[in-house]
Amino acid sequence: MQGDRVKRLWCKGVIRLFSILLIFSSFFVQAQPQLKVGAYHCPPFIFESSEEQYDGLSMILWQRIAEIMQVEYKVSHYGLQELLSAAEVGEIDVGVSCISITPDREEHVDFSHSFYETHLAIAVKNRSYLDSFISIITNKTLWKAICLFLFVAISVGTFYYLLERKNNDKLYSMPTKRGRIAEAFILGVLFITKGPFNYFEFKTLSARVVTVLIAMFSTVFIASITAVLASSLTLEQLRFDVKGINDLSKVKTGAKQGTTASLLLSNHSIAHDTYKDMDALLLALEKGQLDAVVADDAVLRYMIKKGKGKDLFLDLTVLPYQLEKQNYGLVLIENSPYEEKINRALLQVRETNEWHQILLEYFAEK
Fold this sequence. Notes:
With 366 residues, the protein is an alpha/beta fold. It is built from 14 helices and eleven strands. It has three domains: 33-117 and 326-363, Periplasmic binding protein-like II (D-Maltodextrin-Binding Protein, domain 2, 3-Layer(aba) Sandwich), CATH 3.40.190.10; 140-232, no CATH class; 242-325, D-Maltodextrin-Binding Protein, domain 2 (3-Layer(aba) Sandwich), CATH 3.40.190.10. Helices cover 52% and strands 15% of the residues. The strands form two sheets. Strands 1, 4, 5, 6, 7, 8, 9, 10 and 11 form a nine-stranded mixed beta sheet that branches.
């Protein structure tokens, strides 16, 4: 009997101990901190609805990371600069959006590994065919090429005229001196454009010898002129006044406020207007209030593509010039205890087929 009583007491003790352990374990589970996440509206990476619901590429990425880490979180809205400031003072644990990793920002906050790579690009409004035609006839390279061509043609024509005018009635048959000079010019033009005449067209030995030399020169000359004009007068280039970042100083340019695009323009001493959001920026370009805008290529292409579905931004296009590279990362507080886990989970998500399909859904041309 005594042994049974001891056994019952021992069992009760074990049960009580187990209950205490359960209570403590549940306490620690409940005490697990809820991460504070800041989101900055930046389609297609972050969409914010009026009900404070968040969607987009960056939010999908963060949701997958949180699932892998098995953490709870709460999302709050911030502007770009406010989000960076909140991370700097530890008000949030993670910032989620399309925020570029820059040396200046890394002086105040940390970043995760890059989760998307893009570059700054220029968007402009398509020009009319009349504008393109005007660009052709006012193109400085074209007129320089024409002047050079005429100079060479006149030089060649004059050279042959001095050598052949007294001996070659076939090439210089006009009765007047003015007519023969015109023939000399025509000869120079034809020689440069069509190549040398038959060797026996020339009567003097000097003309025949020089013909061989000029023939080689004219071949290289015409090839060079053609290459220069082809690169300068392509239809794509004639449609726009902007060929690169240096041309932005000559036109009215805009960028989103507080972005790396605005910083790039400032660093190049390019005066520009700033706008609070991309919709206002692109509408200003469409209405002719701006001649060009600079922003992240991925964001520009997405916004223009979506706008065209609503009959907006129909004449806007992104130029094929890559400016400064941009790498997007999640914003972290300095020395974040979650940094390593977040980076491991991020790399894991980036390798999945689901992530690649999501990227195609957002950015593939349809």
